[in-house]
Each structure stands twice: as structure tokens, then as C-alpha cells.
Design brief:
By secondary structure, the chain is an alpha+beta fold. The chain has a domain of 38 residues. The protein has two helices and two strands. It has a two-stranded antiparallel sheet with strand order 1-2.
Length: 76
């Protein structure tokens, strides 16, 4: 998906400063997790996410029960 984001804007999105973002991108590039294409876009080359390992895939129950309004409470 084409999206232009400066290092400063990325920093604002993740709560970091621009130099930290630049350092992190450099480290990700050195580790082979991302690569820069000739047209200036980035390619994520690391392992795909979305399939959690067994240790983290268990369900964490909510701390509070969801409260539903009484039946008919929203009827007008």
C-alpha cells in the first residue's frame, strides 16, 4: 500500500522521536527485516506475523464483565 510517512511522522505514530525511528529502521534494515526498493518504498522481508506461538495464543479473559443494557432499555 503506497503511503508516504516521514521518520518524524512515524515517531509521532508510535510515541518516539525521529532519531529513535531512524536508528530502529537502520537496525531493522541491518537485520534483514526490511529493505529499501529503488523507488524509495520499503519491503517488509521478515517473518510474517499473525500466527502466534502456543505460549501467547491463549485467551486472556477481560478483567470486567461486559455490561449489557436491560432488555427494552433502549426502546423508544
Amino acid at each position: 500500500m503506497p503511503l508516504t510517512l516521514s521518520h518524524r511522522m512515524l515517531g509521532q505514530l508510535v510515541g518516539a522521536r525521529r532519531p529513535t525511528v531512524s536508528s530502529a529502521i537502520g537496525a531493522l534494515t541491518a537485520a534483514g527485516e526490511v529493505s529499501r526498493n529503488g523507488d524509495g518504498t520499503w519491503l517488509l522481508t521478515g517473518s510474517p506475523v499473525g500466527s502466534p506461538v502456543a505460549e501467547v495464543s491463549r485467551f486472556v479473559p477481560p478483567r470486567r464483565a461486559m455490561l449489557l443494557p436491560p432488555v427494552g432499555a433502549l426502546a423508544v
